[in-house]
């Protein structure tokens, strides 16, 4: 679902940048059609959710089957919502309606917020409909889902808020430049002024995130003392270890922040409630491995590299880029639709292809490095013996299987950024029995990270040289 929201947001903003600079006719009719499209998306979601909830209530023993099927329906519904959003923004001239008919083009962020509304509103209404399924799947011993409003706020904060905040912060920087120094904002090299500000926002984003997600410091006690000893042993510097309050809905952990003074480890309330201290230690070791190998920066490089290369190639070969646009226009694809279709398609293919593959490999690397770290006793002395990995691997496998079971994820299911549990377990067990395999895998991952770092750096140098 997050991938669809990302693609939709990028597509809408790309369309907005290429929209004609003029008002559209029949504004009230266009607004009515747009609202009708949003209502249709909401009604389809409500129909799917109501039907699924009724099936669950009739046969609660098969709730996992219905939940998996609902997940598939929700994905299809998300694609339908994405198509409707793009049709509203592109087909109805939504950007022109907002910026020129309503004369909001020169306001600070107001036009951007309204331009994103065809993405945000259908998703909010869909979550409001999905609430019925969550209530039907609730077990007597589970944390209560709560009211529909609380459920909606939760999903907005944890899914859409995480994406929209950085987008809006970047747009705020752009709007501020246009209002304060329009001569700089209109220059072709304006990105060179905005880039340091965007980088500053990226570095400081963990401070914002811990407010968007309800968090509090993990209180002093045996568990915190254990995790702090391990962090010192593994030379991991963080600003704090936080409890991530999800109302008991999410069993997970995460790390955020590129720099140690602004880096947090987050452990959800459900994870802390359902896992023993030794199990939490294993999960913490996985997050510590992400920090040790700077996986956040590796992912950032993987995201930035194709974007930087595209900008550099467009500047280096403007004639070839224009020829490609003309050829697409010859195929009856106007320039505005090129922005709407080509960019999101390429983004989606990259996200589900190379980037997803890299993210899954990083998870497997973190699993293996965590087991190596857990093989060391808390005092810091390295373990010895050829079977040193077998005990921590068995421990990590137990934790991973438990997390998947609590989250209701089938063992063979591969998600966007995570390999299947079966693949992760197989990888760890192979590494425990074959030291050469483990060493070879870690060497290749280290080399891959260096290639990404080097490629990103060279691409930036090329982009600045062509500016």
The DSSP helix count reads: 18
Overall pLDDT: 86
End-to-end Cα distance, whole Å, is: 37 Å
Order of SSEs: HHHHHHHHHEHEEEHHHHHHHH
**Rg, please?**
24 Å
Task: Specify the structural class.
Answer: mainly alpha
- Poorly predicted runs are 380-386
From the spread of the alpha carbons, the general shape counts as globular
How many β strands by DSSP? Answer: 4
Largest beta-sheet characterization: 4 strands, mixed
Could you characterize what this model shows?
With 467 residues, this protein is mainly alpha-helical. The protein has helices at 2-18, 27-58, 63-91, 94-101, 110-115, 117-137, 148-180, 182-185, 190-212, 222-233, 269-274, 277-292, 295-316, 318-330, 335-374, 390-407, 421-433, 435-466, and strands at residues 215-217, 240-244, 253-256, 264-268. The chain contains 18 helices and four strands. A four-stranded mixed beta sheet has the order 1-2-4-3, sandwiched between helices. A hairpin with a 7-residue loop joins strand 3 and strand 4. The radius of gyration is 24 Å and the shape is globular. The protein starts with a helix and ends with a helix.
Keywords:
467 residues; mainly alpha; 4 strands
Summarize the model shown.
With 467 residues, the protein is mainly alpha-helical. It is 74% helix and 4% strand. Mean pLDDT is 86; it is low at 380-386.
């Amino acid at each position: 679902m997050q991938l669809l929201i990302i693609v939709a947001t990028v597509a809408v903003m790309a369309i907005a940048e290429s929209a004609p600079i003029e008002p559209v006719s029949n504004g009230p009719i266009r607004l009515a059609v747009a609202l009708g499209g949003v209502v249709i998306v909401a009604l389809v979601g409500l129909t799917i959710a109501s039907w699924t909830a009724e099936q669950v209530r009739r046969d609660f023993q098969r709730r996992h089957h219905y939940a998996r099927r609902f997940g598939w329906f929700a994905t299809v519904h998300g694609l339908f919502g994405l198509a409707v959003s793009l049709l509203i923004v592109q087909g109805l001239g939504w950007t022109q309606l907002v910026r020129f008919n309503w004369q909001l083009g020169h306001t600070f962020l107001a036009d951007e917020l309204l331009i994103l509304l065809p993405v945000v509103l259908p998703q909010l209404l869909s979550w409001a409909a999905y609430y019925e399924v969550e209530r039907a799947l609730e077990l007597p011993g589970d944390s209560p889902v709560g009211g529909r409003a609380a459920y909606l706020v939760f999903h907005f904060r944890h899914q859409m808020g995480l994406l929209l905040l950085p987008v809006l912060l970047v747009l705020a920087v752009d709007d501020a430049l246009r209002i304060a120094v329009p001569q700089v904002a209109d220059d072709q090299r304006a990105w060179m002024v905005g880039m340091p500000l965007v980088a500053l926002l990226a570095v400081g984003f963990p401070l914002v995130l811990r407010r968007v997600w309800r968090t509090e410091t993990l209180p002093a006690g045996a568990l915190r003392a254990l995790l702090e000893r391990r962090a010192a042993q593994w030379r991991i510097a963080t600003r704090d270890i936080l409890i991530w309050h999800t109302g008991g809905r999410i069993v997970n952990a995460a790390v955020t922040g590129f720099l140690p003074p602004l880096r947090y480890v987050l452990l959800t309330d459900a994870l802390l409630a359902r896992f023993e201290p030794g199990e939490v230690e294993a999960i913490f070791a996985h997050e510590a491995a992400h920090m040790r190998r700077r996986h956040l920066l590796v992912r950032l490089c993987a995201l930035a590299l194709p974007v930087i290369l595209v900008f550099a190639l467009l500047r280096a070969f403007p004639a070839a880029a224009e020829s490609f646009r003309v050829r697409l226009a010859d195929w009856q694809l106007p320039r505005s639709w090129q922005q709407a279709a080509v960019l999101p398609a390429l983004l989606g293919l990259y996200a589900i292809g190379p980037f997803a593959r890299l993210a899954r490999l990083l998870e497997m690397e973190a699993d293996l490095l965590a087991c190596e770290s857990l093989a060391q006793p808390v005092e810091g002395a390295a373990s010895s013996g050829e079977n040193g990995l077998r005990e921590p691997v068995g421990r990590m496998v137990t934790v991973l299987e438990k997390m998947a079971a609590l989250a209701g994820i089938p063992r063979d299911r591969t998600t966007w950024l995570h390999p299947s549990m079966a693949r992760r377990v197989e990888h760890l067990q192979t590494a425990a029995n074959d030291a050469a395999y483990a060493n070879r895998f870690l060497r290749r991952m280290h080399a891959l990270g260096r290639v990404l770092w080097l490629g990103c750096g060279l691409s930036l140098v090329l982009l600045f040289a062509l500016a």
